[in-house]
Amino acid sequence: MLEKYEIVLNAAGRAFRQLPADRWDWESPERKRTLGQFCFHLSDRPDRALNAYRVGVYANEDRGREVQHVLGEVGFEEVARNVEEVLRRVKEALSGPTVINLDKKLETYMGDKTAGEMMDLALGHSVHHLKQLYAYMGMMGLEPADPLGAENFAGIVVPTELF
To answer: Can you list the alpha helix ranges (DSSP code H) found in the chain?
Structure first.
C-alpha cells in the first residue's frame, strides 16, 4: 500500500505544480468546487484517515474540509507541499518506527472500518481524483507531466466511472 501511496501522491504533486495560478478558482463542470479546493481534497482524505486512527472516529465532517480553513489563502505550490507532508505522514504511519495497527477498528460515518480499510479507501479516493485531475487538465489544454497509467493503479479499488 505504501508504494502505491508514494506513486499516487507524488504524481498529484507534479500535476498541482503544473497548474497555472489563474486556474485556482476554475470550477469543474460536475461540481461547484474550485480547482484549488479539488486539489487540496485529493490529499485530505489520507490525512483524515490518519487522523481517524489517532482519534478513533472518521466523521462525515472530515470529508469536506476547506483548503482556506486548513492551509489559509494559498496556491497550487502550497497544496503540492501539503501533499508531500501528507505522504511523509503516510510513510511514517505505514513503515516508520511506530507503524499503525491496520486492524484497529474505527468508528466512521459508513459504519465500523479498520484502519487498513480506511487507508485503502483513502488511496482509492486519491486515485479517482487524480484521474479526474488529468481530465480537467486536458479540458484546460494542459498535458500532465509523466502521468500515471493503468499499470500504476493496478490493485487499487477505484470507481469505474470518471465523473
So the answer is: 2-18, 35-55, 67-70, 76-95, 115-139, 150-153
> pLDDT band at 12, cuts 50/70/90?
very high
Residue matched to cell numbers 489517532: 54
Give the span between the Cα atoms of 97 and 116, in whole angstroms: 18
Dump pLDDT digits (tens) for 37-82: 999 999 999 999 999 999 999 998 888 899 999 999 999 999 999 9
User: pTM of the full predicted structure?
Assistant: 0.94
57 φ, ψ to 5°?
-135, 140
**42 φ, ψ to 5°?**
-55, -40
Domains of the chain: 2-153 (1.20.120.450)
